[in-house]
Write a structure and sequence with these properties.
Blueprint lengths: L52 E6 L10 H13 L3 E8 L3 E8 L6 H16 L11 E4 L3 H12 L1 H4 L12 E3 L6
Antiparallel strand pairs: 1-3, 1-4, 2-3, 2-5
C-alpha cells in the first residue's frame, strides 16, 4: 500500500497525475493510465459473402457539435458522392456517429475512405472548432442477424442518451444506400 502523498512533495518515479487533475492535501497521486491502443484496421472480404462494416466515428474531444440539420445534410451529400464504400443506415449523435457501410466502386481501403469523407466534411464545414478524432472504430459483421441486432442498438442511442423519448423522433438518422446481406 502506498503512503499518503504530502502536499508539496515531489512525485516519485512511476507516479503521475492525470491530465487536468490536482491533488488534494493528503491524497496519493493516481496511477498512470495505460496508453490507449488504436484499433486494428483492415476488413477481410470473404468471397461469396456480404461485407458489411459497423463504423463509429467521434468528434475531436467528444465535442457535442455534430447533431444539426446542416451537418446531417452535409454528411448525406458527401456519403452519396463518396461511393467507394456505400453508407447504409446511420445515426448522428451530438459527439459521434454510427453507420453501416459496404464496399462500392472503385475498391478503396475503408481507412482511406473514412479519411476522405472526413476531410471533405471539414473543408465544406470550414469551422476549425468542429473536427473529427483522428481514428475510428470498425468491425465487420459476421452474419445477417448482426446487422439487425446492431441497428436495434444504434437506433436506440438517442433514447438511451435521453435526447428523445421515441427513436422515430430523432431527426439525425437515415439510410443513404440499402445494404443487402
Amino acid at each position: 500500500m502506498k503512503r499518503p502523498f504530502q502536499e508539496g512533495e515531489a512525485l516519485q518515479e512511476g507516479e503521475a497525475l492525470r491530465e487536468g487533475e490536482a491533488l488534494r492535501e493528503g491524497e496519493a497521486p493516481a496511477e498512470p493510465r495505460p496508453s490507449r491502443h488504436h484499433p486494428a484496421h483492415g476488413i477481410l472480404e470473404i468471397q461469396g459473402q456480404s461485407t458489411i462494416v459497423f463504423l463509429t466515428v467521434c468528434t475531436k474531444g467528444r465535442a457535442p457539435w455534430l447533431a444539426t440539420e446542416e451537418h446531417h445534410a452535409m454528411l448525406r451529400s458527401i456519403w452519396s458522392e463518396a461511393t467507394a464504400w456505400l453508407v447504409g443506415r446511420y445515426v448522428l449523435m451530438p459527439d459521434h456517429l454510427h453507420l453501416f457501410t459496404a464496399p462500392g466502386n472503385p475498391e478503396l481501403p475503408l481507412e482511406n475512405w473514412v479519411r476522405y469523407w472526413k476531410s471533405h466534411f471539414s473543408r465544406r464545414n470550414n469551422n476549425k472548432a468542429e473536427r473529427w478524432q483522428t481514428d475510428h472504430w470498425d468491425s465487420r459483421l459476421r452474419r445477417g442477424e448482426s446487422y439487425e441486432e446492431k441497428w436495434a442498438y444504434v437506433i436506440n442511442n438517442p433514447v438511451r442518451h435521453k435526447l428523445v423519448t421515441r427513436t422515430e423522433d430523432w431527426p439525425y438518422q437515415g439510410e443513404v444506400f440499402e445494404l443487402i446481406w
